[in-house]
Design goal:
Pfam families: Acetyltransf_1 (PF00583). With 315 residues, the protein is α+β, with helices and mostly antiparallel strands. Helix content is 31%, strand content 32%. The chain contains 9 helices and 12 strands. It has helices at residues 17-31, 39-46, 53-56, 99-118, 135-143, 182-192, 204-210, 261-275, 293-300, and strands at 7-10, 57-62, 65-73, 82-90, 124-131, 147-158, 173-176, 217-227, 230-239, 244-252, 280-286, 303-314. A 12-stranded mixed β-sheet has the order 1-2-3-4-5-12-6-11-10-9-8-7, with helices on both faces. The longest helix is centred in the middle third of the chain and has 20 residues, at 99-118. The radius of gyration is 20 Å and the shape is globular. The model has no long low-confidence stretch (mean pLDDT 92).
Length: 315
Amino acid sequence: MRWPAGIVARPLAKSDVDALAVLLAAAEAVDHHGTSFDADHLIEELDTPYLDLALDTLGLWDGGRMVGCAKVWSRPGVVDVDRVWIDGRIHPSWRRRGLGRLLLEWGCARARVAHAERHPGVPGKFQGRCNATNESASALFTGAGFALARCYFGMERQLSLEIPPAPVPEGLRVVTFDPAYDEATRMAHNEAFRDHWGSRERTEQDWRASVTGSRTFRGPMSQLALDGDQVVAYVLGYDHGEGELHVGFVGTRRSHRGRGLANALVSRVLTAAAVDGYAVATLGVDAENATGALGLYERIGFVARRKTANYSLEM
């Protein structure tokens, strides 16, 4: 890969998180992608079992300043298609110089190799995403042959607003997350999301590392619905700093859908968050979610603030 004069390209290291945070903050001020640039959170993102920093990441440097970055990643547990994600950012002052196109080319080349190494027996797809209003990023993807595959809404709700109570269906009980139910929650998640676009089976290692083992996971801000000892629905909360509780995962087993469980659990999580001093709750939802999640969140008081476009290209 030939980079412009003055640009040094090398893999990211954990020691780069401060420079990476500065880059992401500058890009976020223009792109409004919803990216976190907290250094501790970035270290956790880089320290995952499915990311090889030496092969799957790249930082672009202009002297001592990081002006671009990219990472290629996928998770284990392929259901039908191995979707390999290519995430990249360019500092606003370095845009329109071809760096974004070069990063995408690098990402596609790495994604193709990673797919062949990890999941050669199933079809592969390149995946990318950007704010739906980012015309230049959208043009970058479509110019490379990507097509719009899915849109997601970033939603938020002020916790100062009244939180209406929601009943728990008869015969079921709701409990605050307990590590004793961790594996049962993972099993419930895998079943609940088996019919969702782009979902994967979460392995024990992946689940422990990035879901309930995440530094930002908050058990007291998470709720489970039990039918006997089986977890049939769950809502998991994450501390995103500055008074924000992020509702990261919401799921209901297919056998228990249509009974208001998501409503009941989300209501309890919001109430707990408000009592604990959080100011706002956020979440992301598939615009085409077949379970009607978007309408549910709107009824609970969430408002869409951002729309993310996912682009896809078959390998």
